[in-house]
Design brief:
By secondary structure, the protein is mainly β. The protein has one domain. The chain contains 3 helices and 14 strands. A 14-stranded antiparallel beta sheet has the order 8-7-6-5-4-3-2-1-14-13-12-11-10-9. The chain is globular. The N and C termini lie far apart (41 Å).
């Protein structure tokens, strides 16, 4: 089993976009927590959070995705991954992407700085010491910026399009295949109506060339990924949403009594 964090990112890419007002797609203070299981063993947890930062007198959005193995199962498969991206909320374009991965003996340490006005991204591999300039388009996004800037777009419309994303220093095409609606049972939310989606891509580590991956996106507001299932070389991996916290008054946020 490889790349637990990457499975979450694969599923996350289908959340949907309000191109006319990207700032409303980002909710500072929002935290989504997931449980990652392999063969029904709860191997790891993953948490994605949103906050604001100020750089060069600009108010920006920071999204952090942290995935760690539970101590009780770290001897089976150790995971310690962190992805952080700084985004311009007005354009939903990434400014800087930092990826640190330590998973099952596999390590990554990448830093990318995007210059959309010049149509280039400077990619640095801290481990190999490789630094290269990658040509991009003026609207190129990476996975997390695409995820959150796509929260309000209709899934069928999204599936009719092919999107090019920046992943691990390269550009990849992403397509989507829409499946049936289903109800995903979640610990704090009961049975949540969700739509099955299959990503069609060639990102390294997303199982798409070695097995199948499917995920379910809630039909209700915020378009949260409720469940991800992937067939891997040995067994199956399941990722389920556990809790959403932060501001808001929708069905995902439970008011304190």
């Amino acid at each position: 089993m490889k790349h637990l964090c990457a499975i979450l990112l694969a599923g996350a890419t289908v959340l949907t976009v309000a191109a006319e007002d990207y700032s409303k797609c980002f909710i500072p203070g929002e935290v989504a927590r997931y449980k990652v299981s392999w063969m029904r063993l709860p191997l790891a947890w993953s948490e994605t959070s949103i906050d604001t930062v100020t750089e060069n007198e600009r108010d920006l959005i920071r999204i952090r995705m942290l995935t760690k193995s539970y101590k009780a199962y770290a001897h089976i498969y150790k995971v310690n991954n962190l992805t952080e991206v700084i985004i311009d909320p007005k354009t939903a374009l990434p400014i800087r992407l930092d990826v640190l991965l330590d998973e099952g003996g596999r390590k990554k340490s990448h830093l990318t700085v995007f210059h959309h006005d010049k149509e280039i991204a400077v990619f640095q591999d801290r481990i190999s010491k490789d630094i290269r300039v990658v040509p991009i388009n003026r609207d190129t996004q990476e996975i997390l910026s695409f995820l959150y800037s796509s929260r309000k777009k209709d899934l069928k419309l999204l599936a009719s399009q092919t999107r090019t994303l920046f992943v691990d220093g390269k550009l990849y095409a992403l397509g989507l295949k829409i499946g049936k609606d289903n109800k995903i049972k979640l610990p704090d939310y009961g049975k949540v109506p969700s739509t099955e989606v299959e990503p069609i891509a060639e990102f390294d580590g997303l199982f798409l060339r070695k097995g199948k991956i499917f995920f379910w996106v809630s039909k209700q507001d915020r378009r949260m990924v409720t469940c991800i299932k992937a067939k891997v070389a040995v067994g199956k991996v399941t990722v389920k949403l556990q809790k959403v916290s932060g501001p808001g008054d929708d069905a995902w946020i439970k008011k304190k009594k």
